[in-house]
Design goal:
single chain; mainly alpha; three-stranded antiparallel β-sheet; two-stranded antiparallel ribbon; 5 strands
Length: 299
């Protein structure tokens, strides 16, 4: 194939095997002019245009280097899209202070855990590691016991006790005598509270699994259930126990949503089922108590 520079008229015979099938541009070795030496039609090369008449005495072909055939420019391949980075809160785990009492100490560990749950529940439950059931159960029972003791103390101050709102728990005697004495306060009630915690967590987790949530397992649900009871610290106030229960329900919803990385809707549906079951249980207890009363007992 003969290629001729339209700028200076330099011409050179180029072997066909040195011209790529997709090349259209060449650079003149004499004047460095870059030009199109042919036009491809549907990927098929066409004959190059005839060389214009050169003025002057043509130089021997051996005296000049060949044309530089420019390969067609190819668009750079797009860089692969990076995988979406996981949220830092989904990968980082922060120890619960109550589970590191060797580092924080007993009372500071309890207080710091309560503060984190009460003030930053979303972050606390999202970065909370899963490290067993014993520590969160112990944390819950300590606060539960604290709320009962405060109920007794407020009773001594003349306020009616509120501990009786628990289904199956009799109101505590401010003097710690009778059927609701020390054994009931420090043994029976904590044992019943532990059973209630496991049953409540089981129902919640079963509902979450039915809605294809709760992938982190029962342990995550149980830890959310127990640590959300940090709100029982409000029992230090008169009737703060009631406010603690209500705020604990809010904390539990936030905890389940973040510990399982699920949606508010699924948590709300699971929670509605739990509240429905608790309402039916409470209603059945009330009905059983009314039916056991002798005729005219309400008069």
């Amino acid at each position: 194939m003969r290629i001729t520079c339209p700028q200076c008229g330099f011409s050179r015979q180029i072997p066909d095997d040195k011209v790529p099938d997709t090349a259209e541009l060449a650079t003149c070795p004499k004047c460095s002019h870059r030009f199109r030496f042919r036009t491809l039609d549907n990927g098929q090369p066409t004959e190059s245009a005839p060389a214009p008449e050169a003025t002057g005495t043509p130089e021997p072909e051996a005296a000049q280097p060949d044309f530089r055939i420019d390969e067609p420019e190819q668009a750079p391949e797009p860089a692969p899209e990076p995988a979406p980075a996981a949220s830092q809160a989904d990968t980082v785990e922060i120890d619960v202070p109550f589970e590191r009492l060797d580092q924080y100490g007993f009372f500071p560990g309890i207080w710091l855990t309560i503060r984190r749950v009460m003030l930053s529940p979303r972050l606390f439950f999202r970065v909370m590691p899963l490290r067993g059931l014993a520590a969160p159960l112990a944390f819950y029972l300590l606060l539960f016991e604290f709320s009962l003791v405060m109920d007794v103390l407020w009773g001594k101050a003349g306020l009616p006790p509120v501990s009786g709102i628990h289904p199956g728990l009799a109101p505590l005697d401010p003097g710690l005598g009778g059927p609701a004495g020390p054994v009931t306060l420090f043994v029976i009630y904590p044992a019943m509270a532990a059973v209630i915690a496991f049953v409540t967590s089981g129902v919640l987790h079963a509902m979450l699994k039915l809605m294809r949530s709760g992938e982190r397992g029962f342990e995550a649900t149980f830890r959310a259930q127990t640590y959300s009871n940090s709100s029982l610290i409000l029992s230090v106030l008169p009737y703060g126990y009631l406010g603690g229960i209500l705020w604990g329900l809010v904390l539990l919803v936030i905890a389940l949503k973040n510990v399982h990385r699920t949606s508010w809707l699924k948590v709300a549906m699971a929670f509605a089922v739990l509240l429905g079951i608790q309402f039916l249980l409470a209603w059945s207890i009330v009905q059983a108590a009314l039916n056991s009363m002798p005729a005219g007992g309400l008069s």
